[in-house]
From TrEMBL:
InterPro entries named among the record's database cross-references: ARM-like, ARM-type_fold, Hgh1, Protein_HGH1_C, Protein_HGH1_N
Protein name per its UniProtKB record: Protein HGH1 homolog
Species of the source: Populus deltoides
Classification via Gene3D superfamilies: Leucine-rich Repeat Variant
Family: Belongs to the HGH1 family.
Protein HGH1 C-terminal domain ranges (all copies): 275-326
Classification lineage: Eukaryota, Viridiplantae, Streptophyta, Embryophyta, Tracheophyta
Ranges for domain Protein HGH1 N-terminal: 96-268
Length: 329
């Protein structure tokens, strides 16, 4: 005889809209507690496909279904099952339907699923040569187009997906591919007013800089976006002299010649400095850094800095610069 929970799970596929709506809301509420999650996980092979189907339904049903899936995906075993059953493709398909009403929730679900290696592989579409990178290109386009700072942006969380996929070499290579031009688009968002978006940009850039040894050329190809993103967060508060600014690219010198808003989050200058370190470890990267008057910017930034972690990151790059200038004498 079916248990109450089995019956409830069965109702998720009911042809009656009111029954289906009531069932999905109860399931969503159950996923809010550890006991509920544990109970539902025993029926994963039925619950997950049923909830996946409901993502395509009207908002009153698709919204609680998406919320339930987000909660369930916090369990790595259930997240792995979701990836295996093609949840990333389903979420992407629904996300890009013209009438999609659960955009933010679907993006959050994708954030959770791309924390798994299998989720990253699925998002990158590595196993399908013709489609490879299509999902990532779509998400980057949405991330860069949707930055309407006046409202709650459903694509803000895409930054976290980009951080996740850039933790893997295949993801970094895709983002650094000059033909796709994805990193260049992402970097344009570095001065967004959204803290979540900024975190995504700098976390992704830092991860991509781990490829500097093999991909330095592709990083330096986007110098006009790269150096402002890396140097403005670490340039300190002062207004730079005309002489100093004249030794920098226009896009940097112009901004540093005026008063600027301080960067609130110390994590961002740390990630910028770690990225600079990874670039300047390479000889050509160090030369490029000197050519934009980078050491002068770091000197001023360090003098203005008070956060010990950020100071430590400055010092790490500083030791490299001192060594670099000594060896080049």
């Amino acid at each position: 005889m079916a248990t109450e929970l089995e019956e409830l799970v069965g109702f998720l596929s009911s042809p009656s809209p009111p029954v289906k709506k009531a069932a999905v809301e109860i399931v969503r509420d159950l996923t809010g507690s550890e006991d509920g999650l544990l109970s539902l996980s025993k029926y994963a092979s039925t619950v997950l496909p049923s909830l996946s189907q409901l993502l395509k339904d009207k908002k009153e049903v698709s919204e609680p279904a998406a919320e339930a899936l987000i909660n369930l995906s916090l369990n790595s075993n259930l997240a792995a099952k979701m990836v295996e059953m093609g949840m990333i493709k389903t979420a992407m398909d629904v996300l890009y339907k013209p009438d999609s009403s659960i955009t933010r929730l679907l993006v959050m679900l994708l954030v959770n699923l791309t924390q798994l290696d299998s989720g990253i592989v699925s998002m990158l579409q590595i196993e399908d040569e013709k489609m490879q990178g299509l999902f990532v290109m779509k998400l980057v386009r949405s991330f860069c187009r949707s930055s309407d700072e006046t409202r709650d942006d459903p694509f803000d969380h895409v930054g976290s997906i980009l951080v996740n996929i850039s933790k893997k070499e295949a993801g970094r290579k895709m983002l650094l591919d000059s033909k796709r031009g994805l990193l260049k688009q992402i970097l344009r968002q570095f001065d967004s007013t959204s803290p979540l978006r900024k975190k995504g940009v700098f976390g992704t850039l830092r991860n991509c800089c781990f490829e500097a040894e093999n991909q330095l050329q592709n990083l330096l190809l986007i110098s006009e976006f790269l150096w402002p993103a890396l140097l403005l967060p670490v340039a300190g508060k002062r207004i730079y002299s005309e002489e100093d600014a004249s030794k920098m690219p226009l896009e940097l010198g112009n901004v540093l010649s005026f008063e600027r808003e301080p960067w609130d989050d110390p994590e961002i200058p740390v990630e910028a400095l770690e990225s600079i370190y990874l670039i300047t470890v390479q000889e050509a990267g160090l030369r490029a850094f000197w050519s934009v008057n980078g050491p002068r910017i770091l000197q001023f930034g360090y003098e203005d800095e008070e956060d010990p972690k950020v100071m430590e990151a400055y010092e790490l790059v500083g030791s490299l610069l001192v060594h670099g200038s000594e060896t080049s004498k």
